[in-house]
Design a protein that fits this description.
The protein is an alpha/beta fold. The protein contains 14 helices and 25 strands. Strand 15 and strand 16 form a beta hairpin. The chain is elongated. Bound molecules: uridine-diphosphate-N-acetylglucosamine. Uridine-diphosphate-N-acetylglucosamine binds next to helix 1, helix 5 and helix 6.
């Protein structure tokens, strides 16, 4: 039976929404729990398919995982084995790469196929592997199968990342915390999720300075205990809801929403005609009048406008009078959603890494298919502005990052629901 989201556009959004914990924090945090010989508890964990895949990997490596209400406990006391990661979960998400360093520490080796995830263009893992090799690991490819071993264990290193990869910074941070000696990571990514991972590791006994800046310093320790930790709120869900308000109109208060990480997205939406107020970890986004084009905007590494927010912002700009262009400097194929935008009557053309948009006065409901996670959410955002009914298929992509997107939108007054037929 095909499952799809039905959205009837044209209703403004009103109300409040509390942000869930950030997927991009929770997934590395779950992998980091494998580094710990005691129990770790993440107190707020959204029910995402990527979280379920992470639980499957942790369980295969000997961890005991248990849901406790909205918390997820991971006990790594008995972890070990041959470090062979289960193929299905590894191929289902890019974040399986986070198990490289923890499995190396706990099992002495790791074997896995190439991680899956959204098809945003080439997504090599060379920086993860190069850093691990400099720390003493050996890497062997047999066709698609990757085996990494650390016969003499890992050791501290002074390492410059060739570009500020979020995932590679997290991999090397997880490798460094249990590697004897000092590690210095230069040119590290500075996303807030990295500081969140470091906060958890520090609570477990790790010695880290500078996480969340381009220069990270780690003093390896012998063991980590496990800790209870509340992951940071999801700035991409926040961006999605802010863009949804821009698309549908209305006024929505985002609770538990720090302003800084959302600021570049809000700056673009305000240029298009929205209003944003903030204070006390609450951001209120509203849109009453028509939208206008914003010219060319670029994504970049943090603190610039986030690549993950690019498709949802582009969706809102489909009805902004005049020209907009959203260019993603991080991934080559960010706008697979362009086809769906056109099906709705939007004038959006891919040009290299950019989406060139000429605003139209109206969009009309259509059958749509999510091709990836954020592009899928972007189609839902665009459908909120479309007259008539849209059916959005390919929900598995969206469930990787949004617990219940239709439910969240419905609670804000949208006519949105999931159906099977
Ligand atoms: C993370 C986020 C993702 C976000 C991205 C960029 C998680 C779980 N996912 O993904 O939502 O869109 O950051 O903010 O946190 N690269 C290499 N070699 C490597 C690693 C990366 O060439 O070894 C390239 C990638 O192909 C890409 C760029 O570096 O072009 C950025 O990727 P990276 O920061 O690593 O993204 P992810 O960690 O995969």
């Amino acid at each position: 039976m095909a499952e799809y989201m039905v959205i009837r556009g044209g209703r403004p959004l009103e109300g409040t929404a509390r942000l869930p914990a950030a997927k991009n924090s929770v997934l590395p945090l779950l992998a980091a729990a494998l580094l710990c010989k005691g129990e770790s508890v993440l107190t707020q964990v959204p029910r995402l398919s990527d979280v379920e895949q992470s639980v499957a990997i942790l369980t295969a490596l000997g961890c005991r995982c248990q849901w406790r209400g909205r918390g997820l406990a991971v006990d790594g006391a008995e972890a070990g084995g041959d470090g062979a990661l289960p193929e299905g979960p590894v191929r289902a998400m890019r974040s399986s790469v986070f198990y490289l360093a923890p499995a190396l520490h706990r099992c002495g080796r790791v074997q896995m196929p190439m991680p899956g995830g959204c098809k945003l263009g080439p997504r090599p893992i060379d920086i993860h592997l190069d850093g691990l090799v400099k720390m003493g690991a050996r890497v062997q490819w047999q066709g698609e199968s990757l085996t990494v071993t650390a016969p003499g264990g890992l050791h501290g290193v002074d390492y410059s990342l060739r570009l500020p990869s979020v995932g590679a910074t997290e991999t090397l941070l997880m490798a460094a915390v249990l590697a004897p000696g000092q590690t210095v990571l230069r040119g590290a990514a500075a996303e807030p999720e990295i500081a969140d991972l470091a906060a958890f590791l520090t609570a477990c006994g790790a010695r880290i300075r500078g996480a969340g800046t381009p220069l990270v310093q780690v003093e390896g320790v012998e063991a980590l205990t496990g800790a209870t930790h509340t992951p940071i709120p999801d700035r991409i869900v926040a961006a999605t809801l802010a863009a949804a308000v821009a698309s549908a109109g209305g006024r929505v208060k985002l609770l538990g929403c720090p302003f800084e990480p959302l600021a570049p997205t809000l700056e673009i939406l305000c240029r298009a005609g929205c209003t944003a107020e903030h204070g006390g970890n609450t951001v209120t986004v509203s849109r009453e009048g028509p939208l206008k084009g914003v010219g060319r905007v670029y994504t970049g590494v943090y603190p610039a406008f986030s690549t993950d927010a690019a498709p949802v912002v582009a969706a809102a700009l489909l009805t902004a009078a005049g020209h907009s262009a959203v260019e993603d400097t991080v991934f080559e194929n960010r706008f697979a959603c362009a086809e769906g935008f056109s099906a709705l009557g939007g004038r959006a053309v891919r040009c290299g890494r950019a989406l060139e948009i000429e605003g139209v006065a109206r969009l009309s409901g259509a059958d749509l298919r999510a091709q990836d996670l954020r592009g899928g959410a972007a189609l839902a955002v665009a459908a909120l502005a479309a007259e008539g009914e849209s059916r959005l298929f390919g929900l598995a992509h969206i469930r990787r990052g949004y617990g219940d997107l239709a439910g969240i939108l419905r609670a804000l007054g949208a006519d949105a629901a999931c159906r099977r037929e």
